[in-house]
Design a protein that fits this description.
Number of helices: 23
CATH topology of the largest domain: Rossmann fold
Radius of gyration: 24 Å
Bound molecules: 1,6-di-O-phosphono-beta-D-fructofuranose
Strand order of the largest sheet: 3-4-15-14-9-8-5-6-7
Number of domains: 2
Shape: globular
CATH architecture of the largest domain: 3-Layer(aba) Sandwich
Largest sheet: 9 strands, mixed
CATH class of the largest domain: Alpha Beta
Strand content: 15-25%
Number of strands: 17
Distance between the termini: 46 Å
Length: 567
Protein backbone atom coordinates (compact mmCIF):
# COMPACT_ATOMS: atom_id res chain seq x y z
CA UNK A 1 0.00 0.00 0.00
CA UNK A 2 1.38 3.43 -0.93
CA UNK A 3 1.99 6.13 1.69
CA UNK A 4 -0.80 8.21 0.19
CA UNK A 5 -3.30 5.34 0.32
CA UNK A 6 -2.40 4.74 3.96
CA UNK A 7 -2.87 8.43 4.75
CA UNK A 8 -6.22 8.50 2.95
CA UNK A 9 -7.42 5.45 4.89
CA UNK A 10 -6.49 7.11 8.18
CA UNK A 11 -8.15 10.37 7.15
CA UNK A 12 -11.54 8.74 6.54
CA UNK A 13 -12.80 9.52 10.04
CA UNK A 14 -12.55 13.31 10.03
CA UNK A 15 -8.75 13.28 10.07
CA UNK A 16 -8.00 15.33 6.95
CA UNK A 17 -5.03 17.69 7.07
CA UNK A 18 -7.47 20.55 7.61
CA UNK A 19 -9.46 18.85 10.39
CA UNK A 20 -6.32 17.88 12.26
CA UNK A 21 -4.97 21.43 11.97
CA UNK A 22 -8.15 23.12 13.22
CA UNK A 23 -8.29 20.87 16.28
CA UNK A 24 -5.04 22.52 17.35
CA UNK A 25 -6.23 26.07 16.64
CA UNK A 26 -5.94 28.29 19.69
CA UNK A 27 -9.37 29.64 20.69
CA UNK A 28 -9.52 33.32 21.67
CA UNK A 29 -10.96 33.48 25.21
CA UNK A 30 -12.44 36.37 27.20
CA UNK A 31 -9.99 37.52 29.89
CA UNK A 32 -12.73 37.45 32.52
CA UNK A 33 -12.50 33.63 32.55
CA UNK A 34 -8.84 33.66 33.64
CA UNK A 35 -7.76 33.91 37.23
CA UNK A 36 -3.99 34.13 37.45
CA UNK A 37 -3.78 32.44 34.07
CA UNK A 38 -6.08 29.55 35.07
CA UNK A 39 -9.46 29.01 33.37
CA UNK A 40 -11.99 29.74 36.14
CA UNK A 41 -15.82 29.95 36.29
CA UNK A 42 -17.27 33.42 36.87
CA UNK A 43 -20.12 34.46 39.18
CA UNK A 44 -22.99 36.72 38.04
CA UNK A 45 -24.66 39.85 39.39
CA UNK A 46 -27.69 41.84 38.24
CA UNK A 47 -26.91 44.25 35.41
CA UNK A 48 -29.93 46.47 36.16
CA UNK A 49 -31.50 45.64 32.78
CA UNK A 50 -34.94 43.98 33.05
CA UNK A 51 -36.30 42.31 29.89
CA UNK A 52 -39.94 42.55 28.83
CA UNK A 53 -42.11 41.96 25.76
CA UNK A 54 -45.65 43.07 24.89
CA UNK A 55 -46.97 39.97 26.69
CA UNK A 56 -44.91 40.11 29.90
CA UNK A 57 -47.94 40.18 32.25
CA UNK A 58 -49.36 36.95 30.78
CA UNK A 59 -45.90 35.32 30.69
CA UNK A 60 -45.20 36.24 34.33
CA UNK A 61 -48.46 34.55 35.36
CA UNK A 62 -47.61 31.39 33.38
CA UNK A 63 -44.00 31.13 34.64
CA UNK A 64 -44.26 32.01 38.35
CA UNK A 65 -41.19 30.07 39.57
CA UNK A 66 -38.78 31.34 36.93
CA UNK A 67 -39.98 34.94 37.19
CA UNK A 68 -39.81 34.93 41.01
CA UNK A 69 -36.21 33.69 40.76
CA UNK A 70 -34.96 36.03 38.01
CA UNK A 71 -37.32 39.03 38.26
CA UNK A 72 -36.65 39.06 34.49
CA UNK A 73 -33.30 40.74 35.26
CA UNK A 74 -30.25 40.40 33.02
CA UNK A 75 -27.10 39.13 34.77
CA UNK A 76 -23.52 40.12 34.01
CA UNK A 77 -20.29 38.22 34.77
CA UNK A 78 -18.69 39.10 38.09
CA UNK A 79 -15.25 37.52 38.26
CA UNK A 80 -14.58 38.79 41.77
CA UNK A 81 -17.11 36.67 43.56
CA UNK A 82 -17.16 33.10 42.20
CA UNK A 83 -17.93 30.19 44.54
CA UNK A 84 -18.52 27.46 41.96
CA UNK A 85 -20.36 24.32 43.04
CA UNK A 86 -18.86 20.86 42.55
CA UNK A 87 -20.30 17.39 42.00
CA UNK A 88 -22.85 18.58 39.41
CA UNK A 89 -24.14 16.26 36.71
CA UNK A 90 -24.96 18.29 33.63
CA UNK A 91 -26.66 17.08 30.41
CA UNK A 92 -26.21 18.91 27.11
CA UNK A 93 -28.24 18.60 23.89
CA UNK A 94 -28.52 20.13 20.46
CA UNK A 95 -31.96 21.19 19.28
CA UNK A 96 -33.17 22.21 15.81
CA UNK A 97 -31.06 22.74 12.69
CA UNK A 98 -27.26 22.47 12.87
CA UNK A 99 -25.06 25.57 13.14
CA UNK A 100 -21.27 25.78 13.12
CA UNK A 101 -19.71 26.05 16.56
CA UNK A 102 -22.06 23.77 18.50
CA UNK A 103 -19.19 21.42 19.31
CA UNK A 104 -17.25 24.32 20.84
CA UNK A 105 -20.11 25.17 23.22
CA UNK A 106 -19.68 21.62 24.53
CA UNK A 107 -15.88 22.04 24.66
CA UNK A 108 -16.16 25.28 26.66
CA UNK A 109 -18.77 23.76 28.95
CA UNK A 110 -16.66 20.63 29.55
CA UNK A 111 -13.53 22.63 30.35
CA UNK A 112 -15.21 25.07 32.75
CA UNK A 113 -17.06 22.28 34.59
CA UNK A 114 -13.67 20.63 35.07
CA UNK A 115 -13.05 17.26 36.66
CA UNK A 116 -15.11 18.13 39.77
CA UNK A 117 -18.32 17.82 37.73
CA UNK A 118 -19.64 15.47 35.02
CA UNK A 119 -20.93 16.34 31.54
CA UNK A 120 -23.36 13.98 29.78
CA UNK A 121 -24.29 14.18 26.11
CA UNK A 122 -27.93 13.69 25.10
CA UNK A 123 -28.23 11.87 21.77
CA UNK A 124 -30.69 13.09 19.12
CA UNK A 125 -31.92 16.32 20.72
CA UNK A 126 -35.10 16.83 22.76
CA UNK A 127 -36.40 13.42 21.67
CA UNK A 128 -33.30 11.82 23.24
CA UNK A 129 -33.89 13.80 26.44
CA UNK A 130 -37.39 12.37 26.68
CA UNK A 131 -36.11 8.85 25.99
CA UNK A 132 -33.13 9.14 28.36
CA UNK A 133 -30.45 8.43 25.76
CA UNK A 134 -27.35 9.88 27.51
CA UNK A 135 -23.63 9.07 27.77
CA UNK A 136 -20.74 10.59 29.70
CA UNK A 137 -18.50 12.90 27.65
CA UNK A 138 -14.74 12.36 27.99
CA UNK A 139 -11.71 14.60 27.45
CA UNK A 140 -10.85 12.46 24.40
CA UNK A 141 -14.29 13.26 22.91
CA UNK A 142 -13.60 16.97 23.34
CA UNK A 143 -10.18 16.73 21.68
CA UNK A 144 -11.89 15.09 18.71
CA UNK A 145 -14.78 17.56 18.27
CA UNK A 146 -13.18 20.89 19.18
CA UNK A 147 -13.36 23.49 16.36
CA UNK A 148 -15.18 21.08 14.02
CA UNK A 149 -18.48 21.91 12.32
CA UNK A 150 -21.84 20.17 12.52
CA UNK A 151 -23.83 18.57 15.31
CA UNK A 152 -22.78 15.01 14.49
CA UNK A 153 -21.26 14.38 17.92
CA UNK A 154 -24.74 14.21 19.49
CA UNK A 155 -27.25 14.63 16.66
CA UNK A 156 -30.31 16.87 16.94
CA UNK A 157 -34.05 16.97 16.31
CA UNK A 158 -37.00 19.37 16.35
CA UNK A 159 -39.31 17.80 18.94
CA UNK A 160 -41.34 20.39 20.84
CA UNK A 161 -41.70 19.19 24.42
CA UNK A 162 -45.31 19.95 25.26
CA UNK A 163 -47.38 16.94 26.34
CA UNK A 164 -47.59 15.66 29.93
CA UNK A 165 -46.12 12.34 28.77
CA UNK A 166 -43.11 14.16 27.27
CA UNK A 167 -42.50 16.18 30.45
CA UNK A 168 -42.75 12.98 32.47
CA UNK A 169 -40.17 11.42 30.12
CA UNK A 170 -37.76 14.30 30.81
CA UNK A 171 -38.39 14.04 34.56
CA UNK A 172 -37.61 10.31 34.47
CA UNK A 173 -34.39 11.01 32.54
CA UNK A 174 -33.35 13.52 35.21
CA UNK A 175 -34.00 10.97 37.94
CA UNK A 176 -32.38 8.05 36.10
CA UNK A 177 -29.17 9.99 35.38
CA UNK A 178 -29.25 11.99 38.62
CA UNK A 179 -29.05 15.25 36.66
CA UNK A 180 -28.57 18.67 38.25
CA UNK A 181 -28.76 20.69 35.04
CA UNK A 182 -29.73 20.56 31.38
CA UNK A 183 -28.18 22.74 28.65
CA UNK A 184 -30.24 23.34 25.51
CA UNK A 185 -28.20 24.53 22.54
CA UNK A 186 -30.85 25.86 20.20
CA UNK A 187 -32.67 28.67 18.41
CA UNK A 188 -35.77 30.60 19.37
CA UNK A 189 -38.12 27.59 19.41
CA UNK A 190 -35.60 25.38 21.22
CA UNK A 191 -35.03 28.04 23.86
CA UNK A 192 -38.80 28.26 24.25
CA UNK A 193 -38.52 24.56 25.14
CA UNK A 194 -35.77 25.52 27.60
CA UNK A 195 -37.95 28.20 29.23
CA UNK A 196 -40.80 25.75 29.71
CA UNK A 197 -38.48 23.04 31.04
CA UNK A 198 -36.87 25.49 33.50
CA UNK A 199 -40.32 26.26 34.90
CA UNK A 200 -41.51 22.63 35.02
CA UNK A 201 -38.27 21.33 36.58
CA UNK A 202 -37.83 24.25 38.97
CA UNK A 203 -38.43 22.06 42.04
CA UNK A 204 -39.70 18.67 43.16
CA UNK A 205 -37.67 16.56 40.73
CA UNK A 206 -35.28 14.92 43.16
CA UNK A 207 -35.99 13.03 46.36
CA UNK A 208 -34.93 16.05 48.46
CA UNK A 209 -37.45 18.25 46.63
CA UNK A 210 -34.88 20.17 44.64
CA UNK A 211 -35.15 20.86 40.92
CA UNK A 212 -33.00 20.70 37.79
CA UNK A 213 -31.45 23.87 36.34
CA UNK A 214 -32.00 24.64 32.64
CA UNK A 215 -29.73 27.00 30.66
CA UNK A 216 -29.87 27.84 26.93
CA UNK A 217 -27.22 28.77 24.37
CA UNK A 218 -28.21 30.93 21.35
CA UNK A 219 -27.76 28.90 18.18
CA UNK A 220 -29.15 29.41 14.68
CA UNK A 221 -27.73 30.34 11.33
CA UNK A 222 -30.88 32.42 10.81
CA UNK A 223 -29.62 35.20 13.11
CA UNK A 224 -33.19 35.74 14.34
CA UNK A 225 -32.23 35.16 17.98
CA UNK A 226 -30.63 38.52 18.78
CA UNK A 227 -31.47 41.23 21.28
CA UNK A 228 -29.70 44.49 20.50
CA UNK A 229 -26.46 45.00 22.41
CA UNK A 230 -27.40 42.24 24.88
CA UNK A 231 -27.28 39.39 22.36
CA UNK A 232 -25.62 40.75 19.22
CA UNK A 233 -26.01 37.53 17.19
CA UNK A 234 -26.71 33.80 17.44
CA UNK A 235 -23.83 31.46 16.68
CA UNK A 236 -23.59 29.77 13.28
CA UNK A 237 -24.69 32.95 11.47
CA UNK A 238 -21.13 34.10 10.77
CA UNK A 239 -20.02 30.75 9.33
CA UNK A 240 -23.16 30.25 7.23
CA UNK A 241 -23.12 33.77 5.81
CA UNK A 242 -19.41 33.57 4.99
CA UNK A 243 -19.96 30.26 3.18
CA UNK A 244 -22.92 31.68 1.24
CA UNK A 245 -21.02 34.92 0.56
CA UNK A 246 -18.13 32.97 -0.92
CA UNK A 247 -20.55 31.05 -3.17
CA UNK A 248 -22.50 34.16 -4.19
CA UNK A 249 -19.19 36.01 -4.74
CA UNK A 250 -18.07 33.21 -7.06
CA UNK A 251 -21.31 33.40 -9.03
CA UNK A 252 -21.02 37.18 -9.21
CA UNK A 253 -17.54 36.72 -10.64
CA UNK A 254 -18.95 34.28 -13.19
CA UNK A 255 -21.72 36.57 -14.45
CA UNK A 256 -19.58 39.23 -16.17
CA UNK A 257 -17.25 36.47 -17.34
CA UNK A 258 -19.85 34.36 -19.16
CA UNK A 259 -22.24 37.35 -19.63
CA UNK A 260 -25.41 35.34 -20.19
CA UNK A 261 -27.27 34.32 -17.03
CA UNK A 262 -29.42 35.82 -14.35
CA UNK A 263 -28.97 33.72 -11.20
CA UNK A 264 -31.93 33.64 -8.80
CA UNK A 265 -30.57 32.46 -5.45
CA UNK A 266 -32.83 31.58 -2.54
CA UNK A 267 -30.84 31.79 0.63
CA UNK A 268 -31.62 30.04 3.93
CA UNK A 269 -32.62 31.92 7.04
CA UNK A 270 -36.27 31.10 7.66
CA UNK A 271 -38.62 34.09 8.27
CA UNK A 272 -36.06 36.83 8.92
CA UNK A 273 -33.80 38.23 6.17
CA UNK A 274 -30.65 38.66 8.30
CA UNK A 275 -28.75 36.08 6.23
CA UNK A 276 -29.72 37.65 2.89
CA UNK A 277 -28.83 41.13 4.16
CA UNK A 278 -25.43 40.03 5.47
CA UNK A 279 -24.58 38.21 2.22
CA UNK A 280 -25.68 41.27 0.22
CA UNK A 281 -23.41 43.51 2.32
CA UNK A 282 -20.51 41.14 1.69
CA UNK A 283 -21.06 40.65 -2.07
CA UNK A 284 -23.25 43.47 -3.54
CA UNK A 285 -25.55 41.68 -6.03
CA UNK A 286 -27.81 43.59 -8.45
CA UNK A 287 -31.01 42.76 -6.53
CA UNK A 288 -31.55 41.64 -2.94
CA UNK A 289 -35.05 41.30 -1.57
CA UNK A 290 -35.54 41.90 2.14
CA UNK A 291 -38.77 40.34 3.38
CA UNK A 292 -39.28 42.79 6.23
CA UNK A 293 -39.15 45.74 3.79
CA UNK A 294 -41.64 43.98 1.50
CA UNK A 295 -44.05 43.67 4.44
CA UNK A 296 -43.45 47.21 5.65
CA UNK A 297 -44.03 48.75 2.21
CA UNK A 298 -46.91 46.32 1.57
CA UNK A 299 -45.38 45.30 -1.78
CA UNK A 300 -47.49 42.82 -3.73
CA UNK A 301 -45.96 39.88 -5.61
CA UNK A 302 -46.67 41.73 -8.88
CA UNK A 303 -44.83 44.84 -7.64
CA UNK A 304 -41.78 42.82 -6.55
CA UNK A 305 -41.65 41.09 -9.93
CA UNK A 306 -42.11 44.38 -11.77
CA UNK A 307 -39.17 45.93 -9.98
CA UNK A 308 -36.88 42.93 -10.72
CA UNK A 309 -37.96 43.02 -14.38
CA UNK A 310 -37.14 46.74 -14.61
CA UNK A 311 -33.64 46.09 -13.22
CA UNK A 312 -33.18 43.34 -15.81
CA UNK A 313 -34.17 45.76 -18.58
CA UNK A 314 -32.02 48.59 -17.16
CA UNK A 315 -28.94 46.32 -17.06
CA UNK A 316 -29.66 44.98 -20.56
CA UNK A 317 -29.52 48.56 -21.82
CA UNK A 318 -25.96 48.71 -20.45
CA UNK A 319 -25.07 45.43 -22.17
CA UNK A 320 -25.37 43.48 -18.91
CA UNK A 321 -27.74 40.62 -19.68
CA UNK A 322 -26.76 39.03 -16.43
CA UNK A 323 -26.99 39.53 -12.70
CA UNK A 324 -27.82 38.00 -9.35
CA UNK A 325 -31.08 38.18 -7.40
CA UNK A 326 -30.85 37.19 -3.72
CA UNK A 327 -34.10 35.94 -2.23
CA UNK A 328 -34.55 35.36 1.49
CA UNK A 329 -35.96 31.90 2.22
CA UNK A 330 -39.05 33.20 4.04
CA UNK A 331 -40.04 35.90 1.52
CA UNK A 332 -43.34 34.27 0.65
CA UNK A 333 -44.65 34.67 4.22
CA UNK A 334 -44.10 38.46 4.08
CA UNK A 335 -45.84 39.31 0.80
CA UNK A 336 -49.07 40.87 2.10
CA UNK A 337 -51.53 38.81 0.04
CA UNK A 338 -49.58 35.62 0.89
CA UNK A 339 -49.41 36.52 4.61
CA UNK A 340 -53.19 36.72 4.76
CA UNK A 341 -53.58 33.49 2.77
CA UNK A 342 -51.11 31.65 5.02
CA UNK A 343 -52.86 32.76 8.21
CA UNK A 344 -56.17 31.52 6.88
CA UNK A 345 -54.56 28.32 5.56
CA UNK A 346 -52.75 27.55 8.84
CA UNK A 347 -55.99 27.92 10.79
CA UNK A 348 -57.93 25.70 8.34
CA UNK A 349 -55.17 23.04 8.26
CA UNK A 350 -55.23 22.91 12.08
CA UNK A 351 -59.06 22.74 12.19
CA UNK A 352 -59.25 19.98 9.54
CA UNK A 353 -56.27 17.91 10.75
CA UNK A 354 -58.29 14.70 11.18
CA UNK A 355 -60.28 15.11 7.95
CA UNK A 356 -57.05 15.62 5.96
CA UNK A 357 -55.29 12.50 7.24
CA UNK A 358 -54.74 9.87 4.55
CA UNK A 359 -55.83 12.12 1.64
CA UNK A 360 -53.66 12.95 -1.40
CA UNK A 361 -52.41 16.56 -1.83
CA UNK A 362 -55.00 17.10 -4.59
CA UNK A 363 -57.82 15.90 -2.30
CA UNK A 364 -56.47 18.00 0.58
CA UNK A 365 -56.39 21.09 -1.65
CA UNK A 366 -59.96 20.54 -2.74
CA UNK A 367 -61.14 20.20 0.84
CA UNK A 368 -59.17 23.20 2.12
CA UNK A 369 -60.02 25.44 -0.83
CA UNK A 370 -63.69 25.02 0.01
CA UNK A 371 -63.00 26.33 3.52
CA UNK A 372 -60.68 29.27 2.73
CA UNK A 373 -62.04 32.80 2.37
CA UNK A 374 -63.01 33.29 -1.32
CA UNK A 375 -60.14 35.74 -2.04
CA UNK A 376 -57.63 33.27 -0.55
CA UNK A 377 -59.05 30.30 -2.46
CA UNK A 378 -58.71 32.39 -5.66
CA UNK A 379 -55.07 33.22 -4.87
CA UNK A 380 -54.29 29.56 -4.09
CA UNK A 381 -55.79 28.54 -7.42
CA UNK A 382 -53.56 31.06 -9.24
CA UNK A 383 -50.31 29.64 -7.80
CA UNK A 384 -48.28 26.93 -9.59
CA UNK A 385 -48.53 23.39 -8.20
CA UNK A 386 -44.89 23.42 -7.07
CA UNK A 387 -45.77 26.24 -4.64
CA UNK A 388 -49.19 24.96 -3.56
CA UNK A 389 -47.81 21.50 -2.68
CA UNK A 390 -45.27 23.08 -0.33
CA UNK A 391 -47.77 25.48 1.25
CA UNK A 392 -49.87 22.42 2.09
CA UNK A 393 -46.86 20.46 3.50
CA UNK A 394 -46.92 19.62 7.20
CA UNK A 395 -45.70 22.39 9.58
CA UNK A 396 -42.74 21.46 11.81
CA UNK A 397 -43.48 20.51 15.41
CA UNK A 398 -43.18 24.18 16.45
CA UNK A 399 -45.79 25.21 13.84
CA UNK A 400 -43.34 26.76 11.33
CA UNK A 401 -44.02 26.65 7.60
CA UNK A 402 -41.16 24.64 6.01
CA UNK A 403 -39.90 27.54 3.91
CA UNK A 404 -36.73 25.69 2.89
CA UNK A 405 -38.96 23.45 0.72
CA UNK A 406 -40.77 26.27 -1.12
CA UNK A 407 -39.15 27.05 -4.50
CA UNK A 408 -39.75 30.82 -4.34
CA UNK A 409 -36.81 31.33 -6.69
CA UNK A 410 -38.60 29.35 -9.42
CA UNK A 411 -41.80 31.32 -8.91
CA UNK A 412 -39.90 34.62 -9.25
CA UNK A 413 -38.06 33.42 -12.37
CA UNK A 414 -41.31 32.36 -14.06
CA UNK A 415 -43.10 35.59 -13.19
CA UNK A 416 -40.11 37.85 -14.01
CA UNK A 417 -39.68 36.16 -17.41
CA UNK A 418 -43.31 36.90 -18.25
CA UNK A 419 -43.00 40.51 -17.04
CA UNK A 420 -39.74 41.20 -18.94
CA UNK A 421 -41.35 39.83 -22.09
CA UNK A 422 -44.40 42.03 -21.59
CA UNK A 423 -42.28 45.17 -20.99
CA UNK A 424 -39.63 44.59 -23.70
CA UNK A 425 -39.70 41.37 -25.71
CA UNK A 426 -36.25 42.12 -27.20
CA UNK A 427 -34.43 41.69 -23.84
CA UNK A 428 -32.50 38.44 -23.42
CA UNK A 429 -33.31 36.82 -20.08
CA UNK A 430 -31.67 33.43 -19.43
CA UNK A 431 -31.92 32.20 -15.88
CA UNK A 432 -30.54 29.67 -13.43
CA UNK A 433 -31.96 28.97 -10.00
CA UNK A 434 -30.13 27.95 -6.83
CA UNK A 435 -30.90 27.28 -3.19
CA UNK A 436 -28.02 27.89 -0.78
CA UNK A 437 -29.05 26.36 2.52
CA UNK A 438 -27.81 23.13 3.95
CA UNK A 439 -24.28 23.65 2.63
CA UNK A 440 -23.84 26.61 5.01
CA UNK A 441 -24.94 25.05 8.29
CA UNK A 442 -22.18 22.58 9.07
CA UNK A 443 -18.93 23.96 7.70
CA UNK A 444 -16.06 24.23 10.17
CA UNK A 445 -16.74 27.31 12.32
CA UNK A 446 -15.11 30.58 11.40
CA UNK A 447 -12.69 31.93 13.98
CA UNK A 448 -15.51 34.20 15.19
CA UNK A 449 -17.94 31.30 15.66
CA UNK A 450 -15.25 29.05 17.16
CA UNK A 451 -14.37 31.72 19.75
CA UNK A 452 -17.92 32.93 20.36
CA UNK A 453 -19.25 29.41 21.00
CA UNK A 454 -16.34 28.36 23.20
CA UNK A 455 -16.93 31.45 25.37
CA UNK A 456 -20.69 30.78 25.37
CA UNK A 457 -19.87 27.30 26.70
CA UNK A 458 -17.74 28.86 29.45
CA UNK A 459 -20.64 31.20 30.27
CA UNK A 460 -23.22 28.40 30.35
CA UNK A 461 -20.99 26.31 32.64
CA UNK A 462 -20.39 29.26 34.96
CA UNK A 463 -24.16 29.88 35.20
CA UNK A 464 -24.73 26.27 36.17
CA UNK A 465 -21.98 26.32 38.78
CA UNK A 466 -23.52 29.55 40.14
CA UNK A 467 -26.87 27.73 40.59
CA UNK A 468 -28.81 29.74 37.95
CA UNK A 469 -31.78 28.45 35.94
CA UNK A 470 -34.06 29.81 33.20
CA UNK A 471 -31.39 31.93 31.46
CA UNK A 472 -29.82 32.00 28.01
CA UNK A 473 -26.09 32.77 27.82
CA UNK A 474 -24.74 35.63 25.74
CA UNK A 475 -21.53 37.61 25.11
CA UNK A 476 -21.68 41.33 24.39
CA UNK A 477 -18.97 43.90 23.57
CA UNK A 478 -17.57 41.58 20.89
CA UNK A 479 -15.07 44.21 19.77
CA UNK A 480 -13.79 44.93 23.28
CA UNK A 481 -12.83 41.70 24.99
CA UNK A 482 -16.36 40.25 25.34
CA UNK A 483 -18.64 40.50 28.40
CA UNK A 484 -20.51 37.31 29.40
CA UNK A 485 -24.21 37.85 30.15
CA UNK A 486 -27.28 35.81 31.12
CA UNK A 487 -30.71 36.85 29.81
CA UNK A 488 -33.88 35.63 31.55
CA UNK A 489 -35.76 33.42 29.06
CA UNK A 490 -39.14 34.55 30.38
CA UNK A 491 -38.21 38.13 29.43
CA UNK A 492 -38.07 37.02 25.77
CA UNK A 493 -41.44 35.23 25.52
CA UNK A 494 -44.42 36.66 23.68
CA UNK A 495 -47.70 35.27 22.36
CA UNK A 496 -47.85 34.12 18.73
CA UNK A 497 -50.27 32.08 16.67
CA UNK A 498 -48.89 28.60 15.95
CA UNK A 499 -50.75 25.48 14.74
CA UNK A 500 -53.93 27.59 14.67
CA UNK A 501 -53.78 28.76 18.31
CA UNK A 502 -51.94 31.21 20.57
CA UNK A 503 -48.70 30.03 22.17
CA UNK A 504 -45.97 31.63 24.29
CA UNK A 505 -42.76 31.53 22.27
CA UNK A 506 -39.52 33.50 22.01
CA UNK A 507 -40.01 36.45 19.71
CA UNK A 508 -38.09 36.08 16.43
CA UNK A 509 -35.88 39.11 15.79
CA UNK A 510 -36.55 40.41 12.27
CA UNK A 511 -34.45 42.84 10.22
CA UNK A 512 -35.28 46.40 11.24
CA UNK A 513 -35.43 48.71 8.24
CA UNK A 514 -34.26 51.50 10.56
CA UNK A 515 -31.08 49.57 11.47
CA UNK A 516 -27.70 50.92 10.31
CA UNK A 517 -27.04 47.68 8.37
CA UNK A 518 -30.27 47.95 6.39
CA UNK A 519 -29.83 51.70 5.90
CA UNK A 520 -26.34 51.20 4.47
CA UNK A 521 -27.67 48.51 2.11
CA UNK A 522 -30.60 50.74 1.06
CA UNK A 523 -28.22 53.61 0.23
CA UNK A 524 -25.95 51.47 -1.94
CA UNK A 525 -28.33 49.06 -3.72
CA UNK A 526 -29.19 51.33 -6.65
CA UNK A 527 -25.48 51.52 -7.52
CA UNK A 528 -25.13 47.74 -7.20
CA UNK A 529 -28.13 47.29 -9.57
CA UNK A 530 -26.79 49.76 -12.13
CA UNK A 531 -23.19 48.59 -12.34
CA UNK A 532 -20.81 45.72 -11.89
CA UNK A 533 -19.54 46.64 -8.46
CA UNK A 534 -19.78 43.17 -6.93
CA UNK A 535 -17.14 41.85 -4.58
CA UNK A 536 -15.87 38.44 -3.59
CA UNK A 537 -15.16 37.91 0.10
CA UNK A 538 -13.18 34.74 -0.76
CA UNK A 539 -12.96 31.59 1.33
CA UNK A 540 -13.26 31.62 5.12
CA UNK A 541 -9.96 32.14 6.87
CA UNK A 542 -9.06 30.66 10.23
CA UNK A 543 -5.59 32.10 10.01
CA UNK A 544 -4.63 35.17 8.03
CA UNK A 545 -5.77 38.71 7.29
CA UNK A 546 -9.58 38.23 7.23
CA UNK A 547 -9.83 35.64 10.01
CA UNK A 548 -11.05 38.02 12.74
CA UNK A 549 -13.79 39.68 10.65
CA UNK A 550 -17.20 39.41 12.34
CA UNK A 551 -20.57 39.71 10.53
CA UNK A 552 -20.74 43.15 8.89
CA UNK A 553 -24.37 43.65 9.92
CA UNK A 554 -23.41 43.07 13.58
CA UNK A 555 -20.51 45.55 13.39
CA UNK A 556 -22.72 48.16 11.67
CA UNK A 557 -25.72 47.68 13.94
CA UNK A 558 -23.69 47.76 17.15
CA UNK A 559 -21.70 50.76 15.91
CA UNK A 560 -18.40 49.01 16.65
CA UNK A 561 -15.28 50.94 15.74
CA UNK A 562 -13.81 47.87 14.02
CA UNK A 563 -15.09 44.97 11.87
CA UNK A 564 -12.84 42.62 13.85
CA UNK A 565 -13.85 40.82 17.04
CA UNK A 566 -11.50 41.01 19.98
CA UNK A 567 -11.47 38.44 22.82
P1 LIG B 1 -33.05 26.49 13.45
O1 LIG B 1 -34.05 27.58 13.52
O2 LIG B 1 -33.40 25.29 14.23
O3 LIG B 1 -31.66 26.98 13.79
O4 LIG B 1 -32.95 25.98 11.94
C1 LIG B 1 -32.51 26.81 10.95
C2 LIG B 1 -32.80 26.29 9.56
O5 LIG B 1 -31.57 26.01 8.93
C3 LIG B 1 -33.62 27.30 8.76
O6 LIG B 1 -32.81 28.30 8.20
C4 LIG B 1 -34.31 26.43 7.77
O7 LIG B 1 -35.50 27.00 7.28
C5 LIG B 1 -34.60 25.20 8.56
O8 LIG B 1 -33.58 25.11 9.54
C6 LIG B 1 -34.63 23.94 7.74
O9 LIG B 1 -35.08 22.92 8.56
P2 LIG B 1 -34.78 21.38 8.36
O10 LIG B 1 -33.38 21.15 8.85
O11 LIG B 1 -35.76 20.73 9.28
O12 LIG B 1 -34.96 21.06 6.93
Amino acid sequence: MSTISRFLDQAEHCQSLFENAIRKLEIPTCQVFFNQGVLTPVAFKEAGIPLTTKDTAAVNAAFPNSVAASQNQTLVADASNAKPATGKRVAVLFSGGPAAGGHNVIAGLFRILGSANALLGVKAGPKGLIQGDLFEISAANIDQIVNTGGFDFLGSDRTKIKSDAQFEGVRQTCIKHNLDAIVVIGGDDSNTNAAVLAEKLYSGVKADGSGVQVIGAPKTIDGDLQIGDLLPISFGFDTATKIYAEMVGNILQDTPSSRKYWHFIKIMGRAASHVALEVALQTKPAVTLISEEVAEKQLSLAEIVDSIAKTVIQRAAGDMNYGVVLIPEGLIEFIPEMTALLQDLNDKLAECKDELAGKTIAQQCELINGKLKPEHAKLMASLPDYIVDMLMAERDSHGNLQVSLIPTERLLIDMTAARVKALDASVKFHTLNHFFGYEGRCGAPTLFDAAYTYNLGLTVGSLILAGKTGFIASIKDLDQGGTPLALPLTGLLNIERRHGHDEMVIEKALVKTSSPAFQYFAQRRAAWAAGDCFCSPGPRQLWGPASRQMPLSVALNRDYASMEFEF
